[in-house]
Amino acid sequence: MYSQLVFKDFQANFKRMDGLLLNHKHNTYELFLLTEGEADVCVGRRRYPLNPGYLFLMPPNIEHKYVSEQICAGYEISFSRKFLELFFTKDMIKRLTRCFAAEVLCLSKDEVKLFAAIYDKMLAQKKCGGDYPVQLALLLDMLNESSITAGGIPVKQKDDKKEITALEDVIAYMNAHYREIRSMEEIVSACFISKSYLCSAFKEHYEMTVMEYLRKLRIRHACEFLATSDKPLSLIAQKMGFSDLSHFTRVFKKEMGMSPNEYRIRQKIKRYESKPQRDD
Hints:
Structural class: alpha+beta
Shape: elongated
Distance between the termini: 95 Å
Largest sheet: 8 strands, antiparallel
Number of strands: 8
């Protein structure tokens, strides 16, 4: 059996991976059937478990990533829309790609065997250059059928309560100590959590980094001080944990679209305009 088939806009290979693969996207359709080990696949805020026999289906230009604490492996097939257009009509392409709406399917043992058999036939075309587009169509037809049968019910998202609780603890710690936190190391040490795990899980759930959240938190509290007090900007910057006034001003302007002084003036004008006016 050949281990890899590569033609223009079409690839098939047996893929091995471990650890975290960073968020990425590509302009091709992707099929990945896990055959060894366990992994999670993340699509936006959705996280699915992958076990042997689980198939991940990703349409083009959708950001996703794989997460695994062990070596895992499986069949990977990718192909572009341009590739499909070379061999199939628009109506046929629409029919063949319906299965990608499922994102993750649990295949039966017979379906896994059929997937592997079709994959082997594709790889056999490496030397004779035959009918691998036809084999792809047969495979997609099988997956379309699987997606509407009991054996191919889409896999439910992973409900990781431990992860959510850990992130809530981190948020609570930052809310209480946002003024004095100086680095990620302080946060992971105080919350008894791995730095790499925190970075990955936090970005997945909140769509921002830990330090981005900390900056937004500081700016939000700075806005309260600016709106309700006449304290000097340098003192507010110090109280919010910024290294100096210029750093505070730069971050504030990036977050709010105006300088701290401009924000303070606007808030004073709003307060004045909201006061009841006396009739003379």
